[in-house]
Amino acid sequence: MKRRIFFAIIVACFVACKDNQNEINISKEEALKIAQRYDISGDSVVISFETYIYPKTSVAYKKGKRKLVYWKIEKKCDSCGIIQVDAESGKVFMTGKYNYIH
Fold this sequence. Notes:
The protein is of the alpha+beta class.
């Protein structure tokens, strides 16, 4: 019984790890090129790779999508932009600007 459970865990991990590699189609460099189209460039640009896990009650989860992997690119200064780029498709799904109140 213990061998079957251990084997099932290894198979599940192998499948999950394999799936994770296939979902990132947009590299960090490609995401930065997309950001340049939104005037986000220069020395103080911050880029991070993030994952959002959909709640089980969400529409996306019910349609079979379990998580969203994306690049968050921002430049933190007054009137500077922020975007989020889907790492699977390369589509920009969020744009914004920082507005500091002095």
